[in-house]
Design a protein that fits this description.
Strand order of the largest sheet: 4-3-2-1-5-6-7
Radius of gyration: 16 Å
Shape: globular
Structural class: alpha/beta
Strand content: 15-25%
Number of domains: 1
Length: 171
């Protein structure tokens, strides 16, 4: 899997799904429409500053609250290449994998990476590198099948690739 590179955007602890994508936008169905409103109640300009591949760094319990899949969809559509957090709410963690949004739990990186820092992330090794300082952090490595889901762009594209045109499994 390719290495991700981007700039750090920081948010704090306990950022819930209603902060990631406010409930007033849940009627929107296109990911690119959701992306324009990502984290706007926390920082109204953040969605405009995010560039493809940028890394969102959060504290503990990122994605808590409701189980809305809109939250990781909006982050991915906004161009977030990876979310690094001290910890994730379990339903957000699974939803992120289901939509193909890379996420890594690494409390040390979550505490130390500074806003604006250039980072590279190697998901196959669980390596997070601060390019400015040269400091490298380690997160748990995903099992190969989870990396395949992320690489495919989410669970639905992954399953489509695994099934033949007639709906039968491809060996």
């Amino acid at each position: 899997m390719r290495e991700l590179r981007g700039r750090v955007h920081r948010v704090g602890d306990d950022v819930d799904t209603d902060v990631i994508i406010p409930g007033r936008y849940l009627a929107l169905t296109r990911p690119e429409d959701l992306a324009r409103h990502v984290l706007e109640d926390l920082d109204p300009e953040l969605a405009r500053r995010i560039r493809p591949g940028d890394v969102l760094v959060a504290g503990k319990n990122f994605g808590c609250g409701s189980s809305r899949e809109h939250a990781p969809v909006a982050l991915k559509a906004a161009g977030v290449g990876c979310v690094i957090a001290g910890s994730f709410a379990r339903i957000f963690y699974r939803n992120a994998i289901n939509v193909g949004l890379p996420i890594l739990e690494c409390p040390e990186a979550a505490r130390e990476l500074e806003a604006g820092a250039a980072v590279s992330v190697d998901l196959t090794r669980g390596a997070i590198r601060d390019e400015g300082s040269g400091r490298e952090y380690r997160a748990a490595v995903f099992p190969p099948f989870v990396l395949e889901i992320i690489r495919a762009g989410g669970l639905v594209p992954y399953v489509r690739r695994r099934l033949g045109g007639d709906g039968e499994a491809v060996s």
